[in-house]
Amino acid sequence: MLQPKKRKFPKEFRGTMGGVATANNKVTFGEYGLKAMENGWINARQIEAARRAVAGYTKRKGKVWIKIFPQ
Known about the structure:
Oligomer: single chain
Number of domains: 1
Low-confidence stretches: none
Largest sheet: none
Strand content: under 5%
Number of strands: 0
Order of helices and strands: H
Mean pLDDT: 76
Radius of gyration: 14 Å
């Protein structure tokens, strides 16, 4: 989906596990936002599932911006 399917060296794409985001955690578009209270990996399928759930809940009448930061 959002990442290359085949990687020669997959470990270098992983990065390090950070803590709770402290920078860039303000809502820049719209009025509502979600903030994770613990760290963890998230993949493209989870992002797409969240986008579809929000779009279905709002009956596709609003605009949805998804911004995920690696901090």
